[in-house]
Design a protein that fits this description.
The structure holds two protein chains of two kinds. Chain A has 20 helices and three strands. The longest helix of chain A has about 45 residues. Chain B contains 15 helices and two strands. Chain B has a two-stranded antiparallel ribbon with strand order 1-2. Classes of the chains: A mainly alpha, B mainly alpha. At the A-B interface, helix 2, helix 12, helix 13, helix 14 and helix 15 of A face helix 5, helix 7, helix 8, helix 9 and helix 10 of B.
């Protein structure tokens, strides 16, 4: 080592004596090389960012392209005859005191077939049954609900738009190709001919899919709806907010303003920071073992989902609230103390209101994350197929991301667009929440 | 009366108590020299005394009720229809409860309908008793508080002491959560290790939990060697980090060192959106779009049978998910380096990229490594992407076009669908959860410590 330094010294002195010739070819080449590597490095950074941006664009584009058709539904017009013989009831009963009850128990199974038979000019019962597959399986229920809502239609023949079966919905949207050979296409040639006949006579339309936003979930893609899951998500988030917001703010207040510097406080801090990084599925296991196992709470309920997510969001809220509270300058506290406020009055009358924008921003971001969370809710059984829209915190329910997961598992082609459409709904909710957080931050944030 | 209605009623009573006490206190406020507390504090003092004891009673009852009502319903039945103690009795009671609460309306067991009627009667009677008791407690609390509404009474001190207690309790929730996680995982895992030896679980190379549910095979459970799962998790994590680390780091460097402030203003929200996309969306995207592309690519490079659920697809998408995380942590680490170091290097004639490579990154390395470890912990614990895109086959393969399975995928697979709670199959999910928790905990604790130490070094 010593030796090497000794021998290198004369060489160094030599270079110092001779000034660098920047114009020499070696130096020019060297500088060019350095600049080239500079440019390369810079481009690599740009490429990395472009990749991230392009991926996001590709993802959003795919979801929008797949999902937008899901907001539209193909409907078929049926000229439904709500008559005595087609419903199998007598007019006297319907006019009687239990008229609605009679209509409710009437037989609606033949209405669609009759209407289609008349329209397409077929008489063979087997052919009628096949033609009936062009409309949704739930057509009879839909017609019943329609008549019950308008009992005055009894005895009349009225046009009713009913959803087409999923395969024909796909056909209309171009997802099933008409020119494909019959064996490959899911729809046989004669059925296709029927459908095209209906299309030619203007009895098929593409309309906004209100059902997707209003009814409960269904196994049939053409009837599936996100409404139940949306309600489930709202109920779950309500519980999460109710629990995690007060506890989170109180914890942050305690840690920032009152906690003595000791081991226990340190332990709480380390705990909170770690909980923020624990995988979400672990919270699901906790919910399963403690809330369902030990406390015996109802499975699949928004109450349990909300509690589980509350524990998960708590660290986010605590950390954000602590930052916000820390940003309030000490002069505010001193001034309040100076005019005789008690320590708690200082905090709750001055510090907390001043840090509220920051706290709320953190809370909304935490809620947005809870809204997109799937894994812990799978653990506590919020993945069951639920036909009813949940009405209370203890009803079985599902939430939007779990609905996405469930639909994505489904093999039917019609669910592809429904899944993407549900994703779009979820993303819109998330964007609204994040937009609100950004608005709050920009409008109310104060720099001291 | 349902629990929630009772609590609402108590809240109403407490509000009345608040208003009455506050009104009384407001009367002696005129002579403020002798008054200790503002009227609001007298009001809150009453509120607490009306609400808290009664609410505690109601909550205690709701926890205790099942263990009281159940046995008394059984005892009220004639001896010949009383079910055997144990699981049969438990199931019978569950059925009776759902009948009584109207969630099911068909009785399967003999005697269930009579029992449901009994259940309803007993529950109603008990609820009324509890409601009456709670009302009495609320009233007592109110009188206690109201008699103390006097000018010299230190209501503020009392209320603030209560608030302090509330603050401390709130802070303890975080500790309770951690303890809850540790104990629930540990407890169920110990039950699992009663059935399967920890050695076999940690070092066995064959994973097929499905056989375990065959009831006739007492003692011979399925294979619970979790090494294939650990490998699958590690493999996908490696792929994900291979995507996320270079891209995340380069993005952070570009954003902090090169980008104009206008470009940054546009790019940061894009990264934030990428971070905010729910994992289930990434999972769907991986399964629907990326996996087929990867498969086609596999065919294109001449593989005979690339799997439709490949480690590569899941890893790639997971990597993209982690880019913003990696980028923002590297961003923090790089901006924390004192600018004197950067300026010194630039002043010596180094190009910006040389400064970044030879000065900034070495100086920020501890912070970057900390961020890297946090990102690894995130990749290991990520669930939905692998559930939807990685598959369930427990392969030990280093071929990224094959499907592998991960710890989180198996936890989901084991705990969803029909199962009995005590089987080794179900319990193994908790053992996997315990391993996952311990590994991520170790990574997090170490990473947070590194990041903290690093920050202190430059402060």
């Amino acid at each position: 080592m010593n030796n090497a330094a000794m021998t290198s010294r004369p060489a160094e002195e030599e270079t110092m004596q001779r000034p660098t010739d920047w114009k020499s070819p070696e130096m020019v080449a060297r500088i060019r090389k350095r600049y080239r590597s500079e440019k390369l490095f810079r481009t690599m950074g740009l490429v990395a960012l472009t990749f991230a941006g392009a991926f996001l664009a590709f993802l959003l584009f795919t979801m929008v392209r797949n999902g937008l058709p899901g907001f539209e539904a193909t409907e078929v017009r049926l000229n439904v005859a709500y008559t005595e013989q087609s419903l199998g009831v007598s007019a006297a009963d319907v006019k009687g005191p239990n008229g609605l009850e009679t209509l409710r128990n009437a037989d609606y199974g033949l209405l669609a077939g009759d209407a289609l038979a008349a329209k397409l000019g077929i008489a063979d019962p087997n052919e009628i049954m096949r033609a009936e597959r062009m409309v949704s399986q739930a057509t009879s229920t839909i017609l019943r609900d329609h008549l019950l809502a308008n009992p005055s239609l009894f005895g009349k023949t009225v046009p009713v738009w009913v959803p087409a079966a999923s395969d024909f919905d796909m056909l209309r949207k171009g997802n099933i190709r008409r020119d494909a050979p019959e064996g490959v296409r899911r729809i046989s040639d004669d059925m296709l001919a029927y459908f095209e006949k209906l299309e030619a006579s203007g009895d098929v339309r593409t309309a906004f899919n209100t059902r997707f936003f209003t009814s409960a979930d269904s196994r049939d893609p053409e009837l599936a709806s996100v409404w139940g899951a949306t309600v489930g998500s709202l109920l779950t988030l309500f519980v999460t907010l109710l629990i995690s917001f007060p506890i989170g703010v109180l914890t942050a207040v305690y840690l920032e303003e009152f906690a003595p510097k000791n081991r226990i406080t340190d332990f709480i801090e380390v705990n909170i920071n770690n909980l923020a990084a624990v995988p979400s599925i672990i919270f699901g296991l906790l919910g399963l073992a403690v809330f369902l196992g030990t406390f015996g709470m109802p499975r699949s309920a928004p109450l349990v989902g909300g509690l589980t997510l509350a524990l998960m969001t708590l660290p986010t809220i605590v950390i954000a609230s602590r930052v916000a509270i820390r940003a309030v300058p000490p002069s505010i506290r001193d001034a309040a103390r100076g005019i005789g406020a008690s320590p708690l009055q200082v905090v709750f009358h001055h510090v907390v209101p001043l840090s509220m924008p920051g706290i709320l921003t953190g809370t909304i971001i935490g809620m947005a994350r809870a809204l997109g969370e799937t894994a812990p809710l799978l653990m506590i059984g919020m993945r069951a197929f639920i036909v009813d829209v949940p009405r209370s915190l203890e009803d079985p329910a599902t939430v939007l991301p779990v609905q996405v997961f469930l639909w994505s598992d489904s093999i039917e082609r019609g669910f592809v667009e429904k899944t993407s459409a549900a994703i779009l709904v979820l993303l819109v909710f998330l964007m609204l929440m994040n937009g609100l957080a950004i608005y709050l931050r920009q409008k109310f944030e104060r720099r001291w | 009366m349902p629990l929630s209605a009772l609590v609402l009623l108590l809240l109403g009573l407490a509000t009345i108590g608040f208003l009455v006490s506050r009104g009384r206190a407001a009367q002696f406020q005129a002579d403020f020299r002798a008054v200790h507390s503002r009227p609001n504090y007298h009001g809150w003092f009453s509120f607490i005394w009306v609400f808290l004891p009664a609410a505690l009673l109601v909550v205690a009852w709701s926890l205790f009720a099942p263990s009281y009502i159940g046995p008394s319903v059984i005892n009220s039945l004639p001896a010949e229809v009383q079910p055997e103690p144990g699981i049969a009795r438990q199931m019978f009671l569950n059925e009776v409860r759902s009948l009584a609460e109207g969630t099911s309306d068909y009785a399967f067991s003999p005697g269930a309908e009579e029992a449901a009627a009994q259940y309803k009667a007993i529950a109603t009677r008990a609820n009324w008793v509890v409601a009456a008791l709670a009302g009495a407690l609320a009233l007592l609390g109110f009188f206690y508080a109201f008699t103390r509404v006097k000018p010299q009474f230190r209501a503020r001190t009392r209320v603030e002491r209560f608030m302090m207690g509330l603050l401390i309790i709130a802070s303890i929730v975080a500790i309770m959560t951690t303890l809850g996680i540790v104990f629930s995982l540990l407890f169920e895992s110990l039950r699992f290790f009663d059935k399967v030896s920890p050695i076999e679980f940690l070092f066995g190379t064959h994973w097929s939990p499905q056989q375990a549910i065959r009831a006739d095979q007492v003692g011979s459970s399925g294979a619970f060697g979790a090494v294939p799962l650990f490998w699958g998790t590690a493999f996908i994590t490696i792929i994900a980090m291979a995507v996320a680390v270079p891209i995340g780091l380069l993005s952070a460097i570009y954003l902090t060192q090169y980008a104009s402030s206008r470009f940054r203003k546009w790019m940061k929200p894009i990264l934030e959106i990428l971070a905010g996309v729910p994992t289930v969306v990434y999972g769907y995207f991986a399964a629907l779009t990326v996996a087929p592309l990867v498969r086609q690519f596999g065919y294109a490079i001449g593989l005979s049978d690339p799997s439709s659920e490949s480690a590569l697809a899941a890893g790639l998408v997971m990597g993209v998910m982690i880019i913003p995380f990696m980028s923002s942590l590297s961003d923090d680490a790089i901006t924390a380096v004192p600018s004197a170091m950067k300026d010194g290097s630039l002043a010596l004639g180094a190009t910006p990229s040389e400064t970044i490579r030879k000065v900034l990154i070495p100086a920020a390395l501890p912070g970057i490594v900390g961020g890297f470890l946090l990102a690894v912990s995130r990749a290991i614990g990520e669930t939905m992407i692998v559930v939807m895109a990685a598959g369930l086959a427990a392969n030990m393969t280093a071929n990224p076009f094959q499907s592998v399975t991960t710890v989180t995928t198996q936890i989901v697979a084991l705990l969803t669908g029909d199962q009995e709670f005590d089987s080794a199959k179900t319990l193994s999910a908790f053992a996997l959860g315990l391993v996952l928790f311990l590994v991520t905990l170790a990574l997090n604790v170490y990473a947070l410590r590194v990041v903290k130490k690093y920050r202190e070094a430059y402060e």
